[in-house]
Task: structure prediction
Amino acid sequence: MLSEELERVLARLTEPDNAVIQQATAELKQAFKDPAIIPALCAVMTGSQKPQVRQSAAVMLRMRVRKHWKKISPDHRESLKVVVLQALQNETEHTVRHSLSQLSAVLVKHETPDRWPALLALLNQSTKSNNPQDRQVGLLLLSKVVGSNPEPFKPHYKQLLQLFGTVLQDLNNPTALYYCILTLTAIAAYTGTEEMNLMRSLIPKLLMALKHLIQADQDQASEAMEVFDELMESEVSIVVPHIAEIVRFCLEISADISLSDSLRVKALSCIAVLIRLKSKAVLKHKLLQPILQVVFPILSAAPPPGEEDPEDEENDTEGDSENPKHFAVQVIDTMALHMPPEKLFNQLLPFTQACLSSENPYERKGGLMCVAVLAEGCADHIRTKMLSSMLQTVCRSLSDNNHVVRSAALFALGQFSEHLQPDVSKFHAELMPLLHGYLSAVNQTKIGHMTKAFYALENFLENLGPEIEPYLPTLMETMLSALNNAENLKLKELAVSAIGAIANAAKEMLVPYFPPIIESLKGFLTDTREEMRTLQTQALDTLSVLARTVGKEVFSPLAAECVQLGLNLTDAVDDPDLRRCTYSLFSAVSDVSPDCLAPHLTPITTVMLLSLRSTEGVTAHLDEDKQFVLLDDDDADDEGEEGDVDLDEESETEVDDRDVAGFSVENAYIDEKEDACDALGEIAFNTGVAFQPFLESSFQQVYELHDFPHEDVRRAAFGAMGQFCRAQHKVWKENPTEANHQALHKLLQVVLPCFLEAVRQDRERQVVMAILESMNAVIKSCQAEALQAPGILAEISNTIKDVLKKKTVCQDVGGDEADDDEQQAEYDAMLQEFAGEGIPVLASALPAETFYPYLNDLLPLIMSKAVFPALVACLPLKEDMEENKTIYSCLSFLYSHNPVLVVSHLKPIISAAAHLLGMKDVDNETQNTLLMLLRGLAQRHTKEFENAVMSLPDEQRNKMTMAVTQS
Result:
């Protein structure tokens, strides 16, 4: 196609007539197969009189270069490089310049800067030009070529930073400032120690430039503010010397109500990030008070007349993420998570108290929102020093005469119920009547308030346990009434969710209410209307909870019907949330009645494996050339070319993932994969032999997710792999054939090395904790079978040692950048706890002489971590009673290897053991471990044991004597 004809066809793409556009598109597709398309497009790009046509030609050239570089002849490549730079210098339209710059960025990916000296020369000349327009063009080009591929420009960073120092003082040229800051943002993560001082010196100029950019273009300024996020997250030490200036700059923006919400949100977000990364520096520079002085008026501000805050609107319970008020609350939340409570509360409480005592309802609301978000980060401080007074404040506010205050009080109570357990449950006598009264009194149409009321109720009930009994009749009357009579589907959904929370607390006490609950849930699950979808999802979730709580005898008769309901829904409805809740239901049924699940394992595993394989929900976000991608789908013969190619579902054309603006994965699809992994693992373990035909394919699919980019999916995948090993071990024990034995070892030889590699290399602590937990469970179940492979025992021992010595990748991530010492220490302690729990598991799986050399290596590390006299001083436990199992296993382990240490602290150990003997909520395994320890002490250290027993009160002494003398 000649350039004149090509220009006419491109012009027709801008016509309003769809038929004309489709015809032009067809002609262009045909033309794209001709190698001569490159010079023809170049001619149009430089010669057309119409800016839109020139831009279209530049975009199409970029697509061609991006996907077919190897097909372009060397001559055409060189001429294209020359033409694009000439076009940039001659072009007057900004939109065309923008597309030309993007084309240059794609060329640079293939050519690299040093192989395109003319580009570097143009950048050098234009960015230093005395002509403001030339500087704008040069900086636009620079921002695109560096932004798309920052690393190859590293040799030029020092020169670039010197240039930025000059450009940032060009305060009368805001467009140049904007592109300069975008380029600075792009290279921030790649700068090394040589550039640090230059980068640091730019901060004052950067702040001044942003102030001028705000006056010129708030949207551009908002985007440019991301430079601080990049600097702080990649190398926070660059901003630390200027932390006071940055905070004051951000406070000035945050407080200015004439500025856009987007800009104010960026400023508040920047403050929150600084607090998260450098809370000590914020306190040292006395910035807490100025921050609070700005943040409190924002979170207490009344909305415009006639409007409500998003969270108070009945039709919008989700809130608005671009709302400055929302981010002001997040700043307080971040303070609570990252600052010492004593220092924070001294300065925060006067502001909070002033708000709570104000006559302005929005100030009272602001005070309550502040109190609410303190609950998580400052939980220990509030629980021990001010829980009663804070609860009184919240309870008073529940009967406030203004609905926005009552709504905030409900949110605060929900936060307290979630984060201040178990102490807050002690106030059930005061809180339950208030909560139930609120649910009964609020008009059912006020769903926003009802949502918060149910949130508070659910969090409170989850931790109430047996003490729910006196409230159960009234609660269930309210819930069943909502299920049967409420017209609003959201209210039904809230009631169904609350029944799940009630079931978790009440367990078998819920049995009398079970038949009417099930009738309602079955009705919801068989209604296929679209508007029923979220209610169905919640019904499945609650059905899973009921399966696990009301007892096997009660639920088993319904198990088969529940499986069929779930299968019918997955067949009829394409919804990731619904599928994942169905998987959880199948998993729960496998625990209660595995025989009911076994006949349906083929369709169940099929749909779960499809979920694991699916790329649904992964969306490629294209830039402005999306309208042209239809023109470039003729590359079926391009297999093997550089770059991965993915299908963009919306346009059904192929898109190179290196040139999309970004990828997002919808949370629902992540949750679906996570729940599918969890469910497959549990179903495999519970159904045993019946699952054998599906184990290999299930394992293969789960294994492929062990390096998935999302940590929750990785965590679930590692957990499922452990379950598969335990399932195969159970099958072998029940049917000890050589084939089953070989299958077990085949699994173990893949899974355990995978676990050990991930413990060392995964960057997320939560994932590593899950792996250690899963590995401990595998070794505990499989015993010596898990440790047969040559060298595996040494590898496991060395990995535990690495965790205890803080040598893994996840223990190093953020350690130098974040000064959040307390949180780092807490995470590391949890990791080391999980690793340490593996030592007695290994010891019990092996003969003493086999494990002894490894124990000798590990014991000094254990002793250095275990604060022994301090441990004994904490006994007996007052809460977290399930930890008794670990404690007495460890005491038994220590006694077998270091009896002198244990005997030297015998009196407090015997006193604690006396409290534990015969307690109802102590499981059999813990009781047996304790009795074996006591009998060993009585036999081998009789005198010391008798002296310790004599120090007990009479009742406990008799109980102890009976326990050790009974056979």
